[in-house]
């Protein structure tokens, strides 16, 4: 990854964050807090931060509201991507995608393998685009969120990252 600040200006993005959990609160939501702190430290704007129950219909309603909001360009979700009976984030969100970004989950698991070994196969991290909004569904662990931000999201949401990044493409997502 190469950053060349002289070539392109930084473009702050409006980002929403949700923690998918039946047990987290504002006090103990370390993953959501980490994502908020990382995006704000990078110069982006937090539009809204919500804790949402791991319920397919509540998740779809929340994501749909953000997808329809022109003031939200990126949604970061943490939690609900595992393989237990209550983990339903991919099932809730994938039907909303206009396009799936297959490489995100693939790359996340590749990087994660270096940190946690074969346990990474339990992650169903996914990403896509809906109505010009980038949607990223991350595991609920704080370490996984840190890995995703530091290795993938931070650079890809930075308009200065070369050779290319999501930030510079957002304006073109709804081209006909």
Write the layout of secondary structure elements.
Elements: E1 2-3, E2 14-20, H1 30-41, E3 45-52, H2 56-68, E4 74-78, H3 89-93, E5 99-100, H4 102-116, E6 126-130, E7 133-138, H5 142-156, E8 161-162
Parallel strand pairs: 2-3, 2-4, 4-7
Antiparallel strand pairs: 1-8, 5-6, 6-7
Please provide a written account of the structure.
34% of the residues lie in helices and 21% in strands. The radius of gyration is 15 Å and the shape is globular. Helix 1 packs parallel to helix 5 (142-156) and helix 4 (102-116) packs across helix 5 (142-156). The two termini are 30 Å apart. The chain has one domain (12-160): 3-Layer(aba) Sandwich (Molybdenum Cofactor Biosythetic Enzyme, Chain A), CATH 3.40.980.10. It has 176 residues and is an alpha/beta fold. Pfam families: MoCF_biosynth (PF00994). InterPro entries: MoaB, MoaB/Mog-like_dom_sf, MoaB/Mog_dom, MoaB_proteobac. May be involved in the biosynthesis of molybdopterin. This is Molybdenum cofactor biosynthesis protein B.
Mean pLDDT: 94
Number of strands: 8
Number of domains: 1
* CATH third-tier fold name: Molybdenum Cofactor Biosythetic Enzyme, Chain A
Distance between the termini: 30 Å
Instruction: Please describe the biggest sheet, giving its number of strands, its sense, and whether it closes into a barrel.
Output: 6 strands, mixed
Q: How is the largest sheet built, in terms of strand order?
A: 3-2-4-7-6-5
Helix content: 25-40%
Helix count, DSSP H or I runs of 4 or more residues: 5
Radius of gyration: 15 Å
The CATH H-level homologous superfamily:
MoaB/Mog-like domain
Overall CATH class: Alpha Beta
- CATH architecture, please? 3-Layer(aba) Sandwich
Provide the structure class: alpha/beta
Q: Strand content of the residues, in percent?
A: 15-25%
Pathway: Cofactor biosynthesis; molybdopterin biosynthesis
InterPro entries: MoaB (IPR012245), MoaB/Mog-like_dom_sf (IPR036425), MoaB/Mog_dom (IPR001453), MoaB_proteobac (IPR013484)
GO cellular component, one term: cytosol
GO biological process, one term: Mo-molybdopterin cofactor biosynthetic process
């Amino acid at each position: 990854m190469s950053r060349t600040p002289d070539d392109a200006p930084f473009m702050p993005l409006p980002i929403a964050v949700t923690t998918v959990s039946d047990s987290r609160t504002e006090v103990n939501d370390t993953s959501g807090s980490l994502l908020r702190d990382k995006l704000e430290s990078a110069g982006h704007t937090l539009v809204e931060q919500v804790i949402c129950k791991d319920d397919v219909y509540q998740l779809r309603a929340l994501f749909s509201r953000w997808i329809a909001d022109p003031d939200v360009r990126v949604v970061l979700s943490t939690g609900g991507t595992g393989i237990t009976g209550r983990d339903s984030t991919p099932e809730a969100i994938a039907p909303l995608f206009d396009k799936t970004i297959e490489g995100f989950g693939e790359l996340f698991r590749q990087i994660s393998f270096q940190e946690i070994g074969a346990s990474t196969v339990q992650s169903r991290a996914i990403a896509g685009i809906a109505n010009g909004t980038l949607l990223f569904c991350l595991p609920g662990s704080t370490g996984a969120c840190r890995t995703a931000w530091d290795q993938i999201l931070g650079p890809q949401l930075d308009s200065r990252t070369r050779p290319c990044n999501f930030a510079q493409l957002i304006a073109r997502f709804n081209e006909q």
